[in-house]
């Protein structure tokens, strides 16, 4: 995918606004535990707001810390064309009289990978499309991982589709649960995509993102969830799903797909391939590649502005709430992969 500039984790955000930024809040696109996502348009694009697209998405938070987390990660990954672009942030006063913290995002006019899967009616996406989408997602993950971070909530609903001249380009979004590698935080994420070590040992590092990627690719190919609930268990309860096995890989998939999934869905995190290694796998090199895209120009602001009531009908963008599975266990790091103590891995294998 070519080399790209890496950002220093401590690099400060810069403000590019020259004057007050007026924007129009449109219909709600989705919501989750963080808040809501709306359509946003620049009210007067010709009056001091050059550089903004006509249409954006605005992610609105009730807490400043949540806005700061999201905007900081988007700023760090701003040079990666496979991470959703950010145009900055500001604050407004909501209808309830409370301050709302906003992050302006590149508008994903194609919805999400999750939307595409639902539209397939359970038949899944064609493999050539899955290969191309997977290449783009891997490119974004490689950038995130080489920068020293873990996404922690990779799933179809967090992979956004932006139209380009060559079709939809998948871009990773929603960094509300992201963390630095080896940072000791509570283990969080969406149950269906949690790795065995995350469920059994509260360890969530870069190999956990690779496991989640395998689940995402499997879901794209099959058109349904990667796990099948047994009698008495629920799909939102991770322990029965990943405590003792891996998702079933259908025999009808191509040899390339089965081999690729086999390198992602490995219970031992030491044995999982890295994003960089998987980018050389024939599953993502054999067919069409995703068209080249350029990172968006970021614009940032701390100025307040009013919200207006112009509405444009659009498809929905859903976001699921994350679950908390308790404190993470201490681990050590061997670059480029985190190393989990043998006592931890033994617990995951039982």
UniProtKB/TrEMBL annotation:
Protein kinase domain sequence ranges: 23-284
A matching Pfam family: Pkinase
One Gene Ontology MF term: ATP binding
Keyword tRNA processing: no
SMART domains in alphabetical order: S_TKc
UniProt-annotated binding residues for ATP: 59
PROSITE patterns xrefs: PROTEIN_KINASE_ATP, PROTEIN_KINASE_DOM, PROTEIN_KINASE_ST
Family as reported in the entry's similarity comment: Belongs to the protein kinase superfamily.
Protein name listed in UniProt: Protein kinase domain-containing protein
Species in which this protein is naturally found: Malus baccata (Siberian crab apple)
């Amino acid at each position: 995918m070519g080399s790209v500039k890496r950002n220093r984790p401590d690099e400060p955000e810069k403000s590019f606004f020259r004057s007050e930024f007026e924007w129009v809040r449109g219909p709600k696109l989705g919501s989750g535990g963080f808040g809501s996502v709306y359509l946003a348009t620049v009210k007067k694009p010709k009056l001091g707001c050059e550089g903004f697209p006509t249409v954006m998405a605005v992610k609105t938070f009730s807490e400043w810390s949540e806005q700061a987390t999201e905007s900081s990660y988007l700023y760090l990954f701003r040079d990666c064309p496979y991470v959703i672009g950010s145009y900055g942030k500001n604050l407004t006063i909501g209808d309830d009289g409370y301050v709302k913290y906003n992050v302006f995002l590149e508008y994903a006019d194609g919805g999400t990978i999750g939307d595409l899967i639902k539209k397939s009616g359970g038949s899944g996406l064609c493999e050539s499309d899955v290969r191309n989408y997977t290449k783009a997602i891997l490119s974004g993950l490689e950038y995130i991982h080489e920068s020293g971070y873990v996404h922690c909530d990779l799933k179809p609903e967090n992979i956004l589709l932006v139209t380009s001249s060559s079709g939809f380009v998948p871009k990773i979004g929603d960094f509300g649960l992201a963390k630095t590698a080896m940072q000791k935080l509570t283990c969080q994420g969406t149950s269906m995509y949690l790795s065995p070590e995350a469920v059994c040992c509260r360890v969530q590092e870069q190999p956990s993102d690779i496991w989640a990627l395998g689940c995402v690719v499997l879901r794209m190919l099959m058109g349904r969830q990667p796990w099948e609930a047994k009698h008495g268990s629920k799909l939102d309860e991770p322990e029965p799903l990943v405590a003792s096995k891996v998702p079933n890989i259908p025999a009808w998939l191509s040899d390339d797909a089965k081999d690729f999934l086999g390198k992602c869905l490995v219970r031992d995190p030491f044995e999982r391939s890295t994003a960089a290694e998987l980018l050389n796998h024939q599953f993502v090199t054999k067919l069409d590649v995703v068209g080249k895209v350029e990172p968006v120009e970021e614009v940032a602001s701390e100025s307040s502005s009013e919200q207006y009531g112009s509405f444009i009908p659009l498809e929905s963008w859903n976001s699921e709430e994350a679950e908390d599975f308790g404190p993470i266990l201490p681990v050590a790091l061997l670059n480029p992969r985190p190393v989990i103590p043998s006592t931890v891995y033994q617990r995951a294998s039982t």
